[in-house]
Amino acid sequence: MKRMFALFLLLAGSLIAPGTAFAQEAANYDACLALVERDADAALGMARTLKLRGGEEEAGGMHCEALALMQMDRPAEAGSAFFDLAERMLRADDALRSEIYAQAGDAWAIAGASKLAVKAYDNAIARMPEDPTYYAGRARVKAIAEDWEGVRDDAAEALALDPNYPEPMLLRSAANRKLGYPRASLVDANHAVELNPHSLDALLERGLVHNALDDKASAWNDWSTLLRYAEETGRLEHPAAVAAKTYLAK
């Protein structure tokens, strides 16, 4: 995160002279970031003070404010803060603005504001149409909203750009499974497990596909393997492990 915003300070177009002032602004931003996890309330107060100073410090304050709001479990407000920052970064390059739009999308998705989340990812994709991560992000948002045809389309776009990208592979598998095409799902699920045999998410999804195909033995094997890996790596609280345990108990 600090790397990304340091890049913003270089690309957004300085409103002040370089040198000591620039270094001080970067230090203020770093100090605000350092507060976020330790004392989000204090970070929010500092961020809003920085916003009043204008220039680069205003931008740094806006970003720190959004991060503090996320830490305080206020994702709807954080989404608005990220989005407003991205809208104002007119002199930054498209790659950086897209990252901020994506942060807005993720925050709004957590808040359950799926339409706003899709809008944020639309903006990211418009600026970086060759970056598969933003199609995958929009697919993830649409999965939360259960727009499975939209998930499948966006996941396919991501995979056209990067055929070995696990996240959209699993999203497309889930979409096809939900839409009633488990055999198509199995192709993606198998590929995802081949790419990362120890992936808890991939094993969970392939188990669900096997279950949809009425192959209970294979589903049981995938979920049992998942739980074994989770136990070996101290990840029994991982959502995929919790889900697998529930399925095995049925």
User: What is CATH's topology name of one domain?
Assistant: Serine Threonine Protein Phosphatase 5, Tetratricopeptide repeat
Task: Please count the helical segments.
Answer: 14
**Rg, alpha carbons:** 21 Å
| Proportion of helical residues | over 70%
Give the name of the CATH architecture of one domain. Answer: Alpha Horseshoe
Largest sheet: none
Keywords, separated by commas or semicolons:
single chain; 250 residues; mainly alpha; Serine Threonine Protein Phosphatase 5, Tetratricopeptide repeat; 14 helices; 80% helix; 0% strand; elongated; disordered N terminus
Provide a short characterization of the protein structure.
The protein has 250 residues and is mostly helical. It is 80% helix and 0% strand.
Describe the structure.
By secondary structure, the protein is mostly helical. It has a domain at 1-126: Serine Threonine Protein Phosphatase 5, Tetratricopeptide repeat, CATH 1.25.40.10. It has helices at 2-11, 20-38, 40-51, 55-71, 75-88, 94-111, 114-127, 132-144, 148-161, 166-178, 182-195, 200-212, 216-232, 239-249. Helix 2 (20-38) packs parallel to helix 4. The longest helix is centred in the N-terminal third of the chain and has 19 residues, at 20-38. It is elongated, with a radius of gyration of 21 Å.
Element layout with pairings:
Elements: H1 2-11, H2 20-38, H3 40-51, H4 55-71, H5 75-88, H6 94-111, H7 114-127, H8 132-144, H9 148-161, H10 166-178, H11 182-195, H12 200-212, H13 216-232, H14 239-249
Helix pairs in contact: 2-3, 2-4, 3-4, 4-5, 5-6, 6-7, 6-8, 7-8, 8-9, 8-10, 9-10, 10-11, 10-12, 11-12, 12-13, 13-14
